[in-house]
Amino acid sequence: MVAQILAKNGYVEKVTVTGRGKERNLMVKLKYIKHMPAITEVKRISKPGRRVYRGTAELPRVLQGQGIAIVSTSKGMMTDQQARTQKLGGEVIATMW
Predict the structure, then answer these.
(1) For the chain, what are the domain ranges?
(2) Domain 40-97 coded CATH 3.30.1490.10
């Protein structure tokens, strides 16, 4: 899940799922550092009309490693750094910093 990736990488303070079945809700508490949001910008890369797939060597490096790209691989959703480590390519969902 994308929210868990953001929490693990320090962009979101807390992620909570409440309820069951169709009545589930996702609560995301945004993180602020000295009154500034931890997430400065988010860019959606793949869209329904245009999917963007990249191999391991072609995965984007966001701000020379300062940001992250979220990639959907055959082993699930992960950051670009994790995908490079596991030598996986996939669909680039979004970039953020």
Answers:
(1) 1-39, 40-97
(2) yes
Write out the chain's pLDDT in tens, 97 residues.
899 999 999 999 999 999 999 999 999 999 999 999 999 999 999 999 999 999 999 999 999 989 999 999 999 999 999 999 999 999 999 999 9
3-state secondary structure of 17: strand
> CA-CA distance, 60 to 44, in Å (whole number)?
13
Would you say 18 and 25 are in contact if contact means Cβ atoms under 8 Å apart? yes
Q: What is the pTM of this model?
A: 0.87
| Cα–Cα distance measured from residue 27 to residue 53, given in angstroms and rounded to the nearest whole number | 30
Q: Write the CA distances from 27 to 11, 18, 80, 85, integer angstroms.
A: 14, 8, 25, 30
